[in-house]
């Protein structure tokens, strides 16, 4: 790790690399401090002050959605092989240099000394976990190579902490960044309530016991025959539907804990669809019929009912947690935080039950997995003097927790 003096440079640039699942992303984040702050502050004291600016000067994402759509879900080995080519390409574009990799089809990274300009950044942040092991190792191997060839410190980042940092990247949010902050982290793989007491200091208050909220969106959408990934398509159709058309369960809504469960909701939707299909077969005597029966309710109504059930649970649990821990702000992050109904219902519930508590959210383009949030979380660790392992010993941790 660099010395304290190096950390006091007026400009600090962090390169972020994200390859945890099906999005390859590279970003370059810059922190600029004034002379006044440099003389009297360091570490997390700087992050608590407003006398600095944060700029994302490069932010590139290569999505694999078209590739995995043909399989109806993410195939880990396909994701990893695709990351290999994409991470090289994105590093080329971010650092302004041409790589010397002989073939985009290589299964391993083959960097050469001097490939990229080491003066473009002061440190490298890379996702260590959680995520798909083979996908994580592509980004980690790329970061290790850069750390070796450019002689820069390597910062392993928890993907979940990255999602928390995505809200911090919004300038207006940083002005209201006062601890404690209650986070609702909702994505395809995670649903958690996290209390952030300071930079790097977290307490998990509740989490899903089975399916994540994003996973429930995607899997119920797949049951309805919607394209992959189904969650955004379901939410779009839900706008046209009646959220009260189907009486769907709200799992664990009244449970005293702050945990979640969405597998029961998914099962209820599947049973309704199977019942509809069987009724339609009996009426038409067509054994090949296997589509949603519009006579029992439109797809739009089912989508609206599913979305309402998920949002009701997320909002109720978040408010219950807020009343318990009394945060200064509530933040919703992760891929599902892009859902307009979730944000509007959270704002409405906070105004009613927790007046004065602000709702924070990431900016457009930062909801899903991205390199900018990894760079931001890396910056937190870098300035916080958190002890880092030797990069040579770093490996993926697919089940990493906060």
Features:
single chain; 402 residues; alpha/beta; Nucleotidyltransferase, domain 5; five-stranded mixed beta sheet; 10 strands; disordered N terminus
Descriptive report:
The chain contains 14 helices and 10 strands. The chain is of the alpha/beta class and 402 residues long. The chain folds into 2 domains: 4-164 and 367-393, 2-Layer Sandwich (Nucleotidyltransferase, domain 5), CATH 3.30.420.40; 179-360, Nucleotidyltransferase, domain 5, CATH 3.30.420.40. The strands form 2 sheets. The protein has a 5-stranded mixed sheet, sandwiched between helices. Strands 8-7-6-9-10 form a 5-stranded mixed sheet, with helices on both faces. Strand 1 and strand 2 (23-33) form a beta hairpin. Helix 10 (230-238) crosses helix 12. The longest helix has 27 residues, at 299-325. The relative contact order is 0.17.
> Which blocks of ≥5 consecutive residues have pLDDT under 50?
1-6, 35-42, 98-114, 286-290
Average pLDDT reading = 87
Give, in order, the helices and strands: HEEHHEHHEHEHHEEEHHHHEHEH
The helix count comes to 14
DSSP E strands, number: 10
Biggest β-sheet description: 5 strands, mixed
What's the number of structural domains?
A: 2
User: How far do the termini sit from each other?
Assistant: 22 Å
How are the strands ordered across the major sheet?
Answer: 3-2-1-4-5
Q: Level of helix content?
A: 40-55%
CATH topology of the largest domain: Nucleotidyltransferase, domain 5
Structural class: alpha/beta
Shape: globular
